[in-house]
Write a structure and sequence with these properties.
globular, 60s Ribosomal Protein L30, Chain: A, 5-stranded mixed beta sheet, two-stranded antiparallel ribbon, 3 helices, homotrimer, alpha+beta, 164 residues
Chain lengths: 164, 164, 164
């Protein structure tokens, strides 16, 4: 793959996001002693992303205990948008070759088992924004509560093109 | 390592499975927008596998709340068999060099702390089927419930031989 | 990077640990059918580490239900010390180039959402001991209970220098 491929890919992603009416959120700085993205060779590890918008957590609580599955899907989309924004800031969209793995966590009421329907919001957003490069392996899980009372959290492993 | 090593390894795995009286389940297609296996260089990421057999989830519920640890072990074995079946379909057993990491999740009743005894079912199955190539790093965790009410779920990172 | 860089790095880590007054715990053998560290190329996967000291789990229970956040932080530090001890035994500190990813799990009372404050104990310990090489991407999560009733568990993905 050439650098031009990367530049063309980045333009396509920007056009897709514009077509979806999506503006990427401003990527949040890590509040603790970690890096939001760490690159090792041709792989990037993206830290857990919660549904932050304008510095606040936009979706909080527990799916099935007030917030609905649709709230969860919207939260998962926003997590995915934050992950793309983090990648853009850290390495540039032009280096994103393929999302390799997505782990998604849903704050879930007792008995809730539809975690995949919620995390699907993140998966569809990644494919809508990144095309085939957004397709990934995935694990969806539920937990009782999430950091900062976030409704959903996702983390990514991403394959990179060589730096220009 | 040569391609012949891979072919010999695949034959050995088939012989081991036959010796164990195990027929690999038909690998399930992803029900959502993700790929069951994604390959990046010499690493494969295998999506979360639940204990599916013939299209149904064979072990459901919560260990310690009806289902026993032995049910959990059997479920973990079936998860591992599904993971091997996914690898066989996606890349072929002849490319499997080493299971690098297994993360296992157990749907657990409150107070349950024997998650490693349950996930051990998957670890032992991988070593029985794949030999030394099946040895892996591991994390075992409990969650209140799992997608599709599965009793156990596992995900793998796998090291690959070069494609022939 | 040369082998001498690695040797100098290992000496620095030993000096930092001495300055912190920390003696690394004896790395625990895996109690089940897995390896504590698996190496693939220039990446090491470190199995889930619980706060073991002298063969016993030093911090047990659930944060917020007896044990405090400070107990959780101390447990997370001990988990990180165990992870470094595992790396030292498996590959030698001189091969550690960068901690790439830390996943941290906190046994949490219902409603607890300060998982990052607990896992921060592990993150700060890694940076204090390893310097810039200890900075990592991170996901912090809560679960109802952990294996062996551990208060905290962490797992690492680590980038390695070439073997000498």
């Amino acid at each position: 793959m050439t650098t031009e491929d990367g530049a063309a890919f980045a333009r396509e992603v920007q056009e897709r996001l514009a077509g979806m009416g999506v503006e990427l959120p401003k990527p949040a700085d890590a509040s603790y002693t970690y890096d939001t993205v760490v690159v090792w060779g041709d792989i990037a590890f993206v830290s857990g992303q919660i549904p932050k918008l304008d510095g606040a957590v936009a979706f909080q609580g527990v799916v099935g205990d007030g917030p609905t599955i649709d709230d969860g899907i919207a939260a998962a989309q926003l997590c995915a948008a934050n992950a793309i924004a983090q990648l853009d800031r850290a390495v540039g969209l032009e280096r994103v070759a393929r999302v390799l793995k997505l782990n998604g966590y849903v704050a879930s009421a007792p008995g809730f088992v539809q975690h995949p329907s919620v995390i699907e919001g993140a998966s569809k957003f990644l494919v809508a924004a990144l095309g085939e490069a957004g397709r990934h392996a995935r694990t969806a899980l539920g937990v009782p509560r999430l950091p900062a009372d976030a409704l959903v959290e996702i983390e990514l492993v991403v394959g990179l093109r060589p730096a220009a």
